[in-house]
Amino acid sequence: MAILARDVAIDETRAVEIPDVHYARSGDIAIAYQIVGDGHPDIIFVRAIAGDLLSTWEQPLLVRQLDVFASVGRLLMLDKRGTGLSDRVREVHPVETAMDDIRAVMDAARSERAVLWTGTFSTGIGVLFAATYPDRCSGLVLFDPRAKGTRSPDYPWAPADAEWRDRLAAVRRDWGERRFLEDLAREWAPEVAGDDAFRDWFVWHMRRSLSPSAAMTAFCAAMELDVRDILPTVRVPTLVFPRPAMPEAGHYVAEHIKDAQVVALPEFHGVYTWTADNVHETAMEATKNFVARLEHPIETNRVLATILFTDIVGSTELVSRLGDSKWRELLQRHHATVRRELSRFRGRELDTAGDGFFAAFDGPARAVHAATAIRDSLRPLGIDIRAGIHVGECEINDEKIVGVAVSVGARIAAVAGPGEVLVSRTVKDLVAGSDLEFEDRGEYQLKGLAEPWQVFSVN
């Protein structure tokens, strides 16, 4: 077994100058981050599930990976909200909130574009960021990417429901306890978990990274996420490292991202590239070569966007009952209410026709919250709306958004009932980790679309 992490001397004491910690504001939340080096391009290291900026630098095996990143560019490393040195939060947040945090760190560090290096439980963050903000993502590196959290017939590589139940029960009962975390070290880093110093570091790193409730939130979000529909919308250069113990999941992602490059790693049994010398060297050499080829930014007019359509139910009857003058007054109040909520949830009004609105968002959870807020705010005015939401790849032409995703959103809105907010399955899958609840409305044959679409009603 060609491992020689132990040769790096896990318990070796070496003087490591820990970079200063900075804070970026993402809404009301402070996100801790560090900057290492001053090269080009910027590389953002988004860790899988846990992270603590300070204890990270206490592990020489991990530090050597950070040293490589800083040698080929400027490294930006952050603690996601709820972890490490960043603000603790009580609410559950969808993946798009993590994208907000990355953008906040980039803005604070004056980073216009960056390479994202991530994977496993954070695959969804990397994929959504690259697809939504291709102008800010110069490249994407995914190690052991997971496109779906729970096993299904068409995705057999994820844990089954029963496995997740056992994992979540153990996390809820034992997270933070030494015995539990030492067992996790043996599972995730078997190459080095026999070393007392490594296990001790691992236990304290995980404790500092995640509180018990934060750990439950992170594992639940990982279980529920499904980004399979989004993979084809990634247009930036992508490098994929399948994990040798389960290569099919990595190859699945690479096959669904256009022109993704795949690099095979030497055999190993853990979930970290940095615990084995030969794996570390292969991954870092491929990363350096990949970054070196990113000379010119890829320009594209195609982005991932969330589409929202709303319109008033029974508007003809309202006009007849109220008369033209009072209808115009009511319509003005309707427009003002819709625009207020669009602004509150960062929606962009694209068109208004009569009593209907067409808007776009850079995150599906924001679109759902905007739609329900619009519905609830209009009810006291005696107005019922219907709304439809879909997320997909769109083409931007002269500030206008067009594409199949727009048609799907409009068709979903058309089948909604009074006061109903309907979403596509893609939207439901992407808001995993939020507090949103849905009810399955079954499949609809949407007008003009060949295949039936499964839709859900927002509770």
Q: What does this protein look like?
A:
With 459 residues, this protein is α/β, with parallel strands linked by helices. It is 39% helix and 21% strand. The protein is built from 15 helices and 16 strands. An eight-stranded mixed sheet has the order 1-2-4-3-5-6-7-8, with helices on both faces. Strands 9, 10, 11, 12, 13, 14, 15 and 16 form an eight-stranded mixed sheet that branches. A hairpin with a 2-residue loop joins strand 1 (22-26) and strand 2 (29-36). Helix 2 runs parallel beside helix 10, helix 5 packs antiparallel against helix 8 and helix 6 crosses helix 7 (196-209). It starts with 21 loop residues before the first strand and ends with a strand. Residues 1-14 have low confidence and may be disordered.
Binned, the helix content reads 25-40%
Biggest sheet features: 8 strands, mixed
By secondary-structure content and strand pairing, the structural class works out as alpha/beta
Distance between the termini: 53 Å
User: How much of the polypeptide forms β-strand, as a percent range?
Assistant: 15-25%
Residue stretches low in confidence (pLDDT < 50, at least 5 long) are 1-14
Question: Strand order across the biggest sheet?
Answer: 1-2-4-3-5-6-7-8
The whole-number mean of residue pLDDT values reads 91
Number of helices: 15
DSSP summary, beta strand count: 16
The best one-word shape is elongated
Taking all Cα atoms into account, the compactness measure Rg is: 24 Å
